[in-house]
Amino acid sequence: MQFGDSFVVEYNVSSAVNNIYPRIVAASSFNGGALQFKNIRNGVSGYRDHTCVSGPATCRWGDYSSAMPDPRPTSTGRGEVWITNQYSGVINPSTATANWRTWISAVQP
């Protein structure tokens, strides 16, 4: 398997205590090395959608996340992993609409 000793894990982080809005982060290892962390996309406000229409309710999150090795990787280098995830993308969203956005990109371990 090409690039079998490398990987990318992509996930969301947030914190109401530290005022961190839902954002996308990736952790990776190349050639069995130490984990490296990278901020992919920052959120701009708290998350809202149709599941939390009133007050400070807990909203569902993460329905649209994935990580997939590039189906046609190069024969040399580090390879690529395509990631898809959600982040909060609208400041002060209306209570009637969702503010999540989708981010798609390729990252290398």
Model description:
By secondary structure, the chain is mostly beta strands. The protein has one domain (7-107). Helices cover 0% and strands 41% of the residues. The chain contains no helices and six strands. It has strands at 7-15, 20-29, 36-41, 66-69, 81-88, 100-107. The strands form two sheets. It has a three-stranded antiparallel β-sheet, with no helix packed on it. A three-stranded antiparallel β-sheet has the order 4-5-6, with no helix packed on it. The chain is elongated, with a radius of gyration of 16 Å. The mean pLDDT is 79.
Task: Show the helix and strand layout.
Layout: E1 7-15, E2 20-29, E3 36-41, E4 66-69, E5 81-88, E6 100-107
Antiparallel strand pairs: 1-2, 2-3, 4-5, 5-6
| DSSP helix fraction | under 10%
Q: How many independent structural domains? A: 1
Taking all Cα atoms into account, the compactness measure Rg is: 16 Å
- List the secondary-structure elements in sequence, H or E: EEEEEE
Mean pLDDT: 79
Largest sheet: 3 strands, antiparallel
Number of helices: 0
Low-pLDDT segments, ≥5 res: none
Strand order of the largest sheet: 1-2-3
Distance between the termini: 15 Å
Structural class: mainly beta
